[in-house]
Amino acid sequence: MATARDVPVLVVSSAASSERRVNPSWSISQLKAKLESVTGIPPSAQALTLRLPDRQQGTAISAQDEHHTQIGSWSLPAYAEIHVTSTDPATAAIIPPLSSVPKYEMPVETYSSLPDTVLAYKRSHQIGRFDPHAPELEEKKVANLWKEIDQARGAQSRSEPPNPYVNQLRSLHLNRPVELCEIGWLTDPWTEITVGARCILPPSTMRRGTVAYVGLVPEIPGIGPWIGVILDEPAGKNDGSVAGISYFDCAPQYGVFVRPERVKIGGWQELGVEEDDDDLDEI
After folding, report:
1. Phi, psi of 267 (to 5 degrees)
2. High-pLDDT (> 70) share of the chain, %
3. What DSSP string runs through the chain?
4. What are the two backbone dihedrals, phi and then psi, of residue 84, each rounded to the nearest 5 degrees?
């Protein structure tokens, strides 16, 4: 008998949020037992809710016989969300929200002084910025960058940059080595990404939104433009600003900046307003 393939899902609780892989052949009891180490909630106190892409309402994962009911009885598309809540008030009070837990941050000076770190290894082996030949390597990478740009744009004249960001690229590349993979934004597919266009951020169709900004963001490391997206749901990382500089306006956690290759443009409707559709194939 063929074994069902594992499906990546997002496990969400008051204390944690992480991606996990589940198998549709598991029983509800097996799933709850595995979720205890992720959420800290005992299986007997867990209430599971499945939220599917493009659906506002969640579906309870429960049955009278949880030992023999497989979770595959519910449709499990990739990157669906399984929300885990505690039915025991005492347990819920013990587990604080993850955001309230103090986190240790090591000072840069302390890290730099430690002998057994990645930084110390790079320094002792002259890797990266510690390589005495780094300037020469940087020049070669920049030369290859321009070669690729010329090929992508039909060897257009350098006096008329093929893209409005090329001049800024010239000034930025002097600060650090340029990776050739960073020139993908100069090719034609990028030009279809415009402010106001609807998009998704694959591989999940749950991350939908509207393009709100197209351009450089000097506060984020890396050469080339970033795409600012206002998501339909609070699954982002900011409010359209980076390091205090505002590039577009949206509610907190609704904004995100991604590279052009992470954006897929199309006639995507807002989450929750589509007509019912039984097609829940994996992404």
Report:
1. -85, 55
2. 69
3. -PPPPPEEEEEE-SS-EEEEEE-TTSBHHHHHHHHHHHH---GGGEEEEEE-TT-SS-EE---S-TTT-BGGGS---TTEEEEEEES-HHHHHHS--GGGS------HHHHHH-SSSHHHHHHHTT-GGG-TTHHHHHHHHHHHHHHHHHHHTTS--TTS-SSTTHHHHHHHTTSS---GGGGGGGSGGGGG--TT-EEEETTEEEEEEEEEEEE--TTSSSSS-EEEEEESSS-SSBSSEETTEESS---TTSEEEE-GGG-EES-PPPTT-SPP-------
4. -115, 120
pLDDT at res. 23:
92
State pLDDT tens for residues 250-266: 998 899 998 887 888 88
pTM comes to: 0.38
List, for the chain, all residue ranges whose pLDDT scores fall below the cut of 50. Answer: 1-2, 148-150, 152-191, 274-283
CA 145/CA 159 separation, integer angstroms: 17
Handedness of CA 50, 55, 56, 59 (dihedral sign): negative
What phi and psi values does residue 159 have, to the nearest 5 degrees?
A: -75, -15
Cα 187 to Cα 158, 184, 200: the distances in Å are: 16, 6, 20
Token reading at 256: 């995100």
